[in-house]
Amino acid sequence: MKLVARVTLAIFLLLTISSVAIGYFAISKYQSSQINLVDDSLNSKIKALESTKEDPLTVAQYLAQVSAIPVSVEYVSDSGTVTVLTVIGPNIPYLPPASLLSQSRHTDVNFGRDLRIRTFEMSGSKKLIIAASLATINSDVSVLTRDLIVFIICIDIFASFIAFIFFRRDGKLNEVSRLIAEQQRAMQKFLGDASHEIRTPLTVIKGYVDLARKTKEPAKQESYLDRSATEIFRMESIINDLLFLAEVGESASDERLPVNVTAILNDHIEVMRALSPLRKISVDLPSEIYYQADPKLMDRMIGNIFSNIRRHTPESAPVAVSLQQAEGSLCLIVEDGGPGLGEYPEKARAIKRFATQRSSEGGGSGLGLSILNSVVERYHGSLQLSPASLGGLQVKITLPV
């Protein structure tokens, strides 16, 4: 379907839904207010009968005669015989069921489609049934509903015609259509991948909570809850990484400043040395290399490399870091002496876990390589994963200058 037709259909649906919602609310409000008037009239008569010491039959007939809303009063004897006392209001076609009569003692109830009734208990099984008609209200609602449908059809036809004429003349719609299609594909992929990533810790949490609920041993309960808390922290990490991936993919934000890549690398290397004093780190960095990028994205990209090394390699595993600037490109190589990936794809596809077991044991989200790849693609670079000379993983990032 062409974009013009899709936009026109969207406007048609939007107007229809909003008109139906507003019209339904207005009609419902009118119907409710009119029924409330009827209920107030019936309730006032029941209260008058409950407070009087005179003959209820006489009082009921008098109340019916002076009522602003026409009501009828019918008397039900001990034997169930119905006698009409007034014919001012609507006639009750037959004696209501006992359950309905019992309910109408305390509140107003509908009897059929067009009657609203209240019941007053007298001595023995004698009753007075006071009824008011809803026929006029129902008729008004039907007329309003018909008018609303006609109005919606007319305004939809007019708005759709105007939208079709207006959008047909706009030459930018093809570009808008392409961007919308790309955003839809990206969003569908993101939602699918996100649900897949979050489902795993949720399943584990559910399992541990069920076990904690079933067992009566405090030690086991504490153990199960601790494991659930660990999975909750891991799910929080997954959500934060997914939100970061969504932010990286937002094309509207493209801040570029001169970023000192050497300084960022030195900062993360110092952090790694402090956290892993047994680790041997060899560094080959120029004094200062600047790159035009978003400082936050560049810091997150480099931080993820070292975070993955700390999480997935032994504390004594060596690390080698080198940064080179050739003509037209910037090349960053980070190697580690850990277990590696076991599988080295040509491209780090988004939301792809290359070492599921390793991610689970390390407590990470498993999205570190996806974040690396997203940032690299943002700057039209390349990410290569391969076996390192140290025995583990080599991450090579090449960014065009």
What oligomeric arrangement do these chains adopt? single chain
The overall pLDDT, averaged over residues, is: 83
Largest sheet: 5 strands, antiparallel
Q: Extract low-pLDDT stretches.
A: 349-365
**How many structural units, i.e. domains?**
3
Percent in strands = 15-25%
What is shown here, in short?
The chain has 401 residues and is α+β, with helices and mostly antiparallel strands.
Would you spell out the secondary-structure blueprint of this structure?
Layout: H1 3-51, H2 56-66, E1 71-76, E2 82-84, H3 98-103, E3 109-111, E4 115-121, E5 127-133, H4 135-168, H5 173-214, H6 218-248, E6 257-260, H7 261-275, E7 281-284, E8 290-293, H8 295-312, E9 319-326, E10 329-336, H9 356-362, H10 368-378, E11 382-387, E12 393-400
Parallel strand pairs: 7-9
Antiparallel strand pairs: 1-2, 1-5, 3-4, 4-5, 6-8, 9-10, 10-12, 11-12
Helix pairs in contact: 1-4, 5-6, 6-10, 7-8, 8-10
Q: Can you walk me through this structure?
A:
The chain is of the alpha+beta class. It has 3 domains: 3-137; 183-248, Orthogonal Bundle (Helix Hairpins), CATH 1.10.287.130; 257-400, Histidine kinase-like ATPase, C-terminal domain (Heat Shock Protein 90, 2-Layer Sandwich). The protein has 10 helices and 12 strands. It has a 5-stranded antiparallel β-sheet with strand order 2-1-5-4-3. It has a 5-stranded mixed β-sheet with strand order 7-9-10-12-11. Strands 6-8 form a two-stranded antiparallel sheet.
